[in-house]
Write a structure and sequence with these properties.
Elements lengths: L7 E5 L3 H12 L3 E6 L7 H4 L6 H15 L4 E5 L11 H5 L5 E4 L19 E3 H8 L15 E5 L3 H12 L5 E5 L11 H4 L8 H17 L4 H12 L10 E5 L2 E8 L5 E14 L2 E13 L3 E4 L13 E2 L2 E2 L15 E4 L4 E8 L11 H20 L8 H9 L9 H18 L9 H7 L8
Parallel strand pairs: 1-2, 1-4, 2-3, 4-16, 5-12, 6-7, 6-12, 7-8
Antiparallel strand pairs: 9-10, 10-11, 13-14, 15-16
This protein binds flavin-adenine dinucleotide and NADP nicotinamide-adenine-dinucleotide phosphate.
């Protein structure tokens, strides 16, 4: 039995969870192969975190580079695992890896199935966030953004999108629409500070007064909710653009109206009340509807995993073994099939693939590390037989009809982008298409 050396693990997805899992496994002597859909590593740390948080992004990039230089880590970017993708999960399973750890994030889109979702000017947060962070192919899609935008959801992603709309798209008005009340906001005060200069504090106070009777019926304090915004406003942070930012509470979207030209002519919302559920609350519709005068609607309500990856899904994430054989801190990292009533042999999940849209990079890192510890327990529980898993994988990926990006190629891309930034006198330069990136690495039209 050899649980630490000569073992091979394939990690699907090189976001924070996958990269930090790779580091943990590699330092234990495991040969790790990272397979990443995007050319660049980093996942949402590269393509989610707001572009102006450059210090944070560069700090994370430096940590990711440290992972990739480890001699036990191989990186193959521009490779997608899944049904109808470059390599299917069963194909990967058959290559002979000791285990597979899926850290592919939450790449599916949570649509609510409302009338009007197909209108021009209705988007999901992912399309907007990937667009402004320059992830191909979203980077090249034209977003039709009007002047008055409703963003559904009151989490940190909503704030990032409001930031982008006001600072970069010059919109007149952003209204964040929460299905619950002022006490149930999910965003952080620190993140609100970025757009506090644009907060219409009077409108928010008016809105809190509108729902105050529902808050007080549950023992909540509307004055404290108002104080939260007043105190934030004290900072006197300058506005980031001319548009205003406000919030609407206790309202669930019911449909987007057609403006007669295939665009948005308003957002209909149903008013909600709040009911107590244990220590938490739940929104319940009251049957009364209103139309908000907006021409663009963006859903920032969290994501779900991509069902095409080939693993069973439960709620928004890949299903986990309810009785884990290799628990870490009491949590299960084992992919699970309810149909077969057993774990998917040798396949583990971590990060947003295990718990969609939950937490910051630090949590994804911790989850990746814990996922790798579950994998190590599994590897140690089995006798190791020598095989050629990595060779099998290389034969398959280098036979793909498109270039595969190695860590050497990545280093070359980074150099070209840094040189371009220096020439242009900007802090950061990112190519917006895969073709440009591949060309910069000398891989365009070349099978490595
Ligand atoms: C808009 C937004 C802003 C955020 N801002 C912050 C912030 O400011 N600070 C902070 O700490 N956290 C922030 N977060 C949270 C943070 O980004 C996440 O916690 C973290 O990135 C999740 O890591 P992950 O590795 O699980 O998934 P991801 O980061 O999503 O990485 C998944 C990786 O898997 C790859 N992949 C996907 N599907 C496949 C496939 N089929 N085959 C192969 N590879 C695949 C992708 O290319 C990607 O590289 C933000 C999140 C969002 C959505
Ligand atoms: N700058 C940062 O640090 C940063 C930036 C972006 C993201 N993140 C992190 O990334 C994670 C994901 O963020 P997120 O904003 O996508 O998710 P989130 O924090 O879970 O917020 C999602 C919002 O959407 C609402 N919602 C969910 N389903 C809905 C539905 N069916 N109808 C109407 N509203 C619905 C939620 O309301 P309920 O509360 O009622 O469910 C909530 O207000 C979070 O951990 C966040 O902190 C961090």
């Amino acid at each position: 039995m050899d649980g630490s050396l000569n073992q091979t693990v394939a990690i699907v997805g090189a976001g924070p969870a996958g990269l930090f899992a790779a580091k943990e496994l590699a330092t234990q002597g495991v040969q790790v192969v990272l397979l990443n859909r995007d050319i660049k590593p980093g996942g949402l740390a590269e393509y989610g975190i707001f572009p102006t948080k450059l210090k944070m992004k560069n700090g994370l990039r430096a940590q990711f580079r440290q992972v990739l230089v480890h001699p036990n880590v191989e990186y193959y970017g521009n490779v997608t695992i899944g049904d109808h993708a470059d390599i299917s999960l069963p194909e990967l399973q058959n290559m002979g890896f000791g285990a597979i750890l899926v850290t592919a994030g939450a790449q599916g889109t949570k649509w609510l199935g409302l009338p009007g979702e197909d209108l021009t000017g209705v988007y999901h947060a992912k399309e907007v966030v990937y667009h402004y962070n320059k992830l191909p192919p979203f980077s090249q899609r034209q977003l039709v953004i009007g002047k008055k935008v409703a963003v559904i959801g009151v989490g940190n992603v909503m704030l990032d999108i409001a930031h982008y709309l006001i600072a970069d798209r010059n919109v007149d008005e952003v209204i964040a629409v929460g299905r619950r009340g002022p006490q149930e906001i999910k965003f952080d005060r620190k993140e609100l500070d970025y757009i506090i200069g644009n907060l219409d504090v009077q409108a928010v106070e008016f809105e809190i007064n509108r729902v105050a009777h529902i808050m007080t019926s549950l023992g909540q304090n509307p004055e404290m909710a108002k104080a939260f915004y007043h105190e934030a406003k004290q900072k006197m942070t300058p506005p980031i653009g001319s548009g205003s930012f406000s919030l609407r509470f206790l309202s669930s979207p019911t449909r987007m109206l057609d403006n007669g030209r295939g665009g948005v002519g308003g957002l209909e919302v149903e008013e909600n009340t709040l009911i107590a559920v244990g220590d938490d609350t739940k929104a319940r519709g009251l049957g009364t509807c209103h139309v908000l005068d907006v021409d663009t609607v963006i859903f920032a309500i969290g994501d779900k995993v991509d069902e095409n990856l080939g693993l069973p899904v439960h709620a928004s994430a890949f299903d986990k073994n309810p009785s884990p054989l290799y628990p870490v801190d009491g949590d299960s990292y084992e992919a699970y099939s309810k149909d077969d009533n057993q774990p998917v042999e040798g396949v583990f999940v971590a990060g947003w693939s295990r718990n969609a849209s939950t937490g910051l990079v630090g949590l994804a890192r911790k989850d990746g590390v814990n996922g790798s510890r579950a994998v190590m327990q599994f590897l140690r529980s089995r006798s190791f037989s020598q095989n050629n898993a990595i060779g099998n994988l290389k034969s398959a990926i280098f036979a793909l009809p498109h270039p595969v990006v190695t860590k050497d190629a990545l280093a070359a891309l980074e150099n070209v982008e840094q040189q371009r930034a220096a020439t242009l006198g900007v802090e950061e330069f990112k190519f917006v298409t895969n073709a440009e990136m591949l060309e910069a690495m000398g891989l365009m039209g070349v099978t490595p």
